[in-house]
Amino acid sequence: MIALLGGLFLLAVLLLGADAFSRAKVGNIKRLLAWVAALGGVSLAALLLLSGRAGGAISALLFAAPLVISWWQQSKARPRAMPRRSATAMGRAEARAVLGVAEGASAEEINDAWKRLMVKVHPDHGGTDALAARVNEARRVLLG
Questions:
Q1: Angle, nearest 10°, between helix axes 129-143 and 92-99?
Q2: Per residue in 4-52, pLDDT tens?
Q3: Could you tell me if 133 and 101 lie in one domain?
């Protein structure tokens, strides 16, 4: 009977977790997987150290170090949220400032700046919907 209740509880937890996972943003899932990998690596190194296999623990840590450093540098390079803009429409000067282009920029320069920024601020790459919409609006103002 206790095993049945435990199984039902585990099933409920898994279903709730699956529901939360299905609604999560890609960036949050990536961060979760990075933490799981980091904790797994630290746990592996601790178990190797405790079992007397210090060489294996050191090699595991040296193997994981480049990944940890890469994740840390990427997290520092993530674009920060821009301050909220007013409810008024974006002007040409503001659009140029958002895209970082000069006043007489050609359509090609505007598109290149837009592509460069969208790689950084797109929600699938750690950005937000608001930032992507702001960059799209700047491009529309300058090209439209």
A1: 120
A2: 999 899 899 888 888 887 888 888 888 888 788 778 877 877 888 888 8
A3: yes
Tokens of 106: 């050609």
What does the alpha-carbon distance between residue 22 and residue 43 come to, in Å, rounded to a whole number? 28
Backbone angles phi, psi at 101, to 5 degrees: -115, 160
**What would the pLDDT profile of 40-66 be if each residue is shown by its tens digit?**
877 877 888 888 888 877 877 777 778
The beta-carbon contacts of 141-144 under 8 Å, at least 24 apart in sequence, are 141/90, 141/91, 141/92, 141/95, 142/92, 142/95, 142/96, 142/99, 142/101, 142/105, 142/110, 143/107, 143/110, 143/111
What's the CA gap between 110 and 142, in Å, rounded?
A: 8
Q: Which domain holds residue 96?
A: 92-143
pTM beyond 0.85: no
**Phi-psi sector, 6: left (phi>0), alpha (psi -120 to 50), beta:** alpha
For the chain, the domain total comes to 2
